Amino acid sequence: MNMDDLDNKERENVQINVVDVIPIIEDTNDDILKHHKGIYWRLLFLNLVILWAYQSLISAQNYYLKFFKNDHLDFWGTVSAGSAMFFLHVIQLYFGVYKYGFTKRVVPGFIGYIIIAILVMAFKNKIILIIAFASVGGINTITESPVYGIAGLFITGAFTQAVQVGNGLAGVLNVSANTIIRLIVLLVHSHIDQDQLSFYIFMSVLIILCFIAIYVYYGLIRIPPVNIRINQQMASFRQEKLACTIQLDFIENQLSFWALTKILKIHLFVQFYVLFITLLLWPGIPCGASNNGWFDNVGKVWWCSPFVIGTYNLGDLIGRTLAIKVHKYFSSNTCLVCSILRTLFILIIFYRHHINNIFLLILITFMGITNGLLATVTFMVRPQTIIGVNNCERAAYLMTAALYFGIAAGSIVAATLSLTHVV
226 in a domain, yes or no? Predict the structure, then answer.
């Protein structure tokens, strides 16, 4: 074989690798505006359903109080869910599970929610419920992180905000649905226990929503700008796996997780600390506060859910919705200061038995507003040094890890304080 043949062969090999690489897609007005609403509302709905499963278990406090009064499910539930969220997410990142695509995680996740809903209706057992909390937490990270990842494929922060609003909206609509179902069941004379029947109906709603979410997900990934970016990501992962001659660094300046962590250090801390303070104080501690007035009589069974759960979720939704309007006024340092100031909410622990229930609900609402606002702003305002689709997606996964770590740490500390009778 002569030198010309070798040169031709080498050029052919290079061309094959070049064709396999999908070029970097940058956001353009024509690219995004045409499909903006379709992408925005689908992302919002998907995360709404993902969080609906978790919120369904949180909102059913009346069911736990009646059948598992002394089992502290308000604490153990959040501990098992939060811990499963964090550890499974870290495992995903460590083993590169995110490289296997979005559909292989999202669709099985929704199917998992359906199975869990059926199990908690079929078996009235505290161990099953705690396992259900942990399973929902684990499935949550499998399904929610890809949704954040898809939103992170775009430079605009609007799609990340859509995911965040879906998070907040899930809480408000979920506790509202639970309350309406309980009120309707009160008016219906049934041989089945009222709390049991409302729980069955509540879980059935989750099953229906999961089937709808699967349909919505497939609609989302068929939208051209989403489909192109997903294909680009998967092509990049295939290039890594096959160790092709063209290095990914040539395509875009891919940053390691450690490099991204150093860039995002303030954002990561804010995300962690905001969720830590929230889960330290909610829902268990205010649910156990001394009741007065109407809440000390006929309203006692309604105190934790819908009032404690609902007021926080309403505030959280307000904060996440406001973020799109005010995020430009928040620098990373402003977010840091605000998150540290939220430490003052710890005073709720010491005064929950001595303040009026209405004032406590106002404090919980304000805690929800600040949680939703800061958690969303830190996700939306990405440092300018993070560029490229792959880096943006990996940054979203890191932020999600900080979020889950805050949930896990806050709920564990809250449960420890409760079980040791410190609070």
Answer: yes
**pTM for the structure as a whole:** 0.81
CB 260 within 8 A of CB 368: no
Summarize pLDDT for 283-319 with one digit per residue, the tens. Answer: 988 988 888 888 988 788 899 989 999 999 999 999 9
What token pair was written down for 321? 């919705």
Q: What is the CATH number of the domain that holds 98?
A: 1.20.1250.20
Condensed to tens digits (0 to 9), the pLDDT of residues 203-225 reads 999 999 999 999 999 999 999 99
pLDDT band (50, 70, 90) for residue 26: very low
Asked whether the beta carbons of 71 and 115 are under 8 A apart, the reply is: no
Q: Which residue has the tokens 């509202």?
A: 176
Question: In angstroms, rounded to a whole number, what is the distance separating the alpha carbons of residues 405 and 192?
Answer: 40
The single residue listed with the structure tokens 């977010």 is 335
Contact 367, 315 (CB under 8 A): yes
Q: Give alpha helix (H) positions in 34-102.
A: 36-59, 61-67, 73-95
Question: Is residue 86, in this structure, part of any structural domain at all?
Answer: yes
Asked whether residue 26 is domain-assigned, the answer is no
- Residue 163 contacts residue 147 (beta carbons within 8 Å): yes
Cβ(272)–Cβ(402) below 8 Å: yes
Instruction: Report helix, strand and coil shares of the chain as percent, to nearest 5.
Output: 80, 0, 20
For residue 372, which of 308, 419, 312 has the smallest C-alpha distance?
Answer: 312
Dump the DSSP string for 309-325: HHHHHHHHHHHHHHHHH
- For 94, half-sphere exposure in the C-beta direction (CA atoms, 13 angstrom radius) is 6
Q: pLDDT tens-digit profile of 241-279?
A: 665 434 444 445 778 889 999 999 999 999 999 999 999
Res. 365: pLDDT tops 90: yes
CA distance 410 to 377: 21
| Domain total in the chain | 1
- The answer to whether position 337 is within a domain reads yes
Domain coverage including residue 409:
35-419
Cα gap 141→389, rounded to integer Å: 21
DSSP, res 364: H
Q: Enumerate residues 6+ apart whose C-beta is below 8 A from 49.
A: 110, 170, 209, 210, 212, 213
Query: What's the rounded Cα separation, in Å, for the pair 245 and 224?
Result: 29
Residue 121: per-residue pLDDT:
93
Q: Which region, left, alpha or beta, applies to residue 124 given φ > 0 means left and ψ of -120 to 50 means alpha?
A: beta
pLDDT at residue 103 in the model: 93
As to burial, measured by CB atoms within 10 angstroms (0-12 exposed, 13-18 middle, 19+ buried), residue 221 is middle
In the block, residue with structure tokens 């880096």: 391
